[in-house]
Amino acid sequence: MAFELEKLPYAENALEPHIDAETMAIHYGRHHQAYVDNLNKAIAGTDAENLSLDEIIKNISKYSGAVRNNGGGHYNHSLFWSVLSANGGKEPTGELADAIKEAFGSFDELKSQLQSAGATRFGSGWAWLIVGKDGKLAVTSTPNQDNPLMDVAEVQGTPIFGIDVWEHAYYLKYQNKRPAYLEAIFNVVDWDAVAKRYQEAK
Ligand code: MN
Fold first, then answer.
1. Is a pLDDT exceeding 70 seen at residue 1?
2. CA-CA to 118 of 20 to 30 Å: which in 14, 139, 182, 188?
3. Would you say 32 is a known binding-site residue?
C-alpha cells in the first residue's frame, strides 16, 4: 500500500495574502509530493508498507533516515494543511480555550510561545502545540521533519497544531523575516480544526 498526497482542502490562493499562492503551489505540489514519493521508495518491499503512517512515526527509531525524514515530512505537512483555513484567524473556543488558559494563562501567551519556538529553531524545523503525556498542552519544537509523536523526540506528545519554519514555507514572500511569517500565519489558523485534534488526542 503506497502513501498518497491528499488533496489540499482549499485553493492554493485561499490563504492570500498571508501565505501566497506561489509558495503554496511549490510547498504542497513539489515539497510535500516529494516527501510522499520518497517515503514510498524508502519503504518499498519492507514490512512498513503494511503499516499506517502513525504506526511508523511512533516507532521511527526502528527505521532509516530516509523513512524518518520523508515519513515525518508527509505526516507534518498533512497536519499543517489541515489546521489552516481562509476562514481562520479567530481565537480558540470551548474546551480548547479552557485548556490553553490553564496551560499558558492566555491565548496571547500561547501565541507568543509558539512564535518564540519557531523563531529560535535554528535552521529548519517546526514549532508545535502538543498534548503531552500528562494530558496537558505544551509548546515545543523539533528539527528537520521530526515531530513530537516520534519516539526520538526530546519532548513527546501528540501534535495538534504545528508551524512549518523551513525557509520553503515562507521565503518567497517574507525572505529572511521569519518573525513576520510567524505573525501573519495566525490570520489563517483554523482553531476549530485544532480543537477537533485536541478532542481526539486527550
Ligand atoms: Mn514544509
1. no
2. 14
3. no
The x, y and z cell numbers of residue 1, run together, are 500500500
Interval between CA 168 and ligand 1 midpoint (Å): 6
**Residue 51 CB contacts under 8 Å (≥ 6 apart), including other chains:** none
Q: Is 18 annotated as a binding residue?
A: no
Burial of 201 (0-12, 13-18, 19+ CB in 10 A): middle
Handedness of CA 163, 166, 172, 178 (dihedral sign): positive
E strands along the chain, which residues? 125-132, 137-143, 157-164
Query: Do 123 and 47 meet the contact criterion of CB atoms below 8 Å apart?
Result: no
Closest CA to 2 of 30, 31, 42: 42
Q: Please give the model's pTM, rounded to 2 decimal places.
A: 0.97
Residue 102 Cα to ligand 1 midpoint, Å, equals: 30
Nearest alpha carbon to residue 125 among 61, 175, 80: 80
Mean pLDDT across 124-141: 97
Q: How far is the CA of 178 from the centre of ligand 1 (A)?
A: 14
For residue 74, say whether it is annotated as part of any ligand binding site: no
Phi, psi (rounded to 5 degrees) for 198: -60, -45
CA-based angle 39:42:45, to the nearest 5? 120
d(CA 22, CA 68): 27
The region, left, alpha or beta by phi > 0 then psi within -120 to 50, assigned to residue 144 is: left
